[in-house]
Write a structure and sequence with these properties.
single chain; 260 residues; Immunoglobulin-like; 5-stranded antiparallel sheet; transmembrane helix
């Protein structure tokens, strides 16, 4: 195909350009119509691209926020830490139930200080059980008939059916008004026996101890002498006891003086 001459192409282009000159009347008509539209519509049309972009940004922000909240959600049993600078929540105060009846204040009981000890019962009168006879040994006590005025003698007589190889006798004289030791003696020879008197808080103790030899079967007297206040004194509170040893074993006798 043969090329057309350059001069012909230029003339064609110019001819076409002359045919497409803009119609000024038509352009002015379009401008007037655009300006007569409401401002809101013009702004809406102008903001459509901006709104579309904002919608995309908001969707992305919400998506990232949801991911963060899902990862930072505290466990059910863990208390979330308070934000620094935030006000502490006000404590909840339970209001009394309107249906609850009024109750009187309870009286406080004093603290228990421990078990309360009951006072011991008063001592009962104990009557001693005397044993005036035991096996080979027999005994008796009496106020000597020669006791007069402020002087008295208490006698204890022991009777044995066996030979005694050891003997210990005690006479207790209760300390009533004015009681003091006034002497002692026994029918056993003095070189065979030891006699002592001991003063205790509430009595005089006369003691007779066989120190050597033996005592043949028979009766032996042991005497405790004392003075006391003017007037009669009953020996009912005076007691005695004896421990004797023989070939068959030991015998123990105890007793009290009869009241006057």
């Amino acid at each position: 195909m043969a090329e057309r001459p350059q001069a012909d192409l230029g003339s064609v282009l110019r001819h076409e350009a002359d045919r497409h000159l803009p119609d000024r009347d038509v352009m002015l008509t379009r401008i007037v119509e655009r300006r007569s539209e409401p401002a809101a519509r013009r702004w809406a049309l102008s903001l459509r691209p901006v709104a579309a972009a904002a919608s995309v940004v908001a969707t992305l922000v919400v998506g990232f926020a949801g991911i963060r909240l899902a990862g930072d959600r505290p466990d059910q049993d863990r208390t979330p830490a308070a934000t620094e600078g935030s006000a502490s929540p006000a404590p909840s105060i339970a209001s009394p139930s309107p249906s609850a009846p009024d109750r009187a204040p309870q009286r406080e009981e004093p603290a228990h200080q421990g078990p309360v000890e009951k006072p011991p019962p008063p001592p009962s009168t104990i009557t001693p059980t005397w044993q005036p006879a035991d096996r080979f040994l027999d005994s008796a006590a009496a106020l000597d008939a020669h006791s007069v005025g402020t002087w008295a003698q208490g006698n204890v007589t022991l009777t044995t059916t066996e030979t005694m190889t050891a003997l210990d006798v005690v006479i207790n004289v209760t300390k009533t008004a004015g009681v003091k030791d006034a002497g002692k003696w026994s029918t056993i020879p003095a070189d065979m026996i030891t006699i002592t008197v001991a003063e205790e808080k509430d009595r005089l103790v006369y003691r007779f101890t066989l120190k050597q030899g033996t005592l043949a079967p028979g009766g032996y007297v042991f005497a405790a002498q004392y003075t006391h206040a003017e007037g009669e004194r009953s020996p009912a509170a005076d007691t005695y006891g004896a421990l004797a040893t023989a070939a068959s074993g030991q015998a123990v006798v105890t007793g009290a003086f009869p009241p006057k």
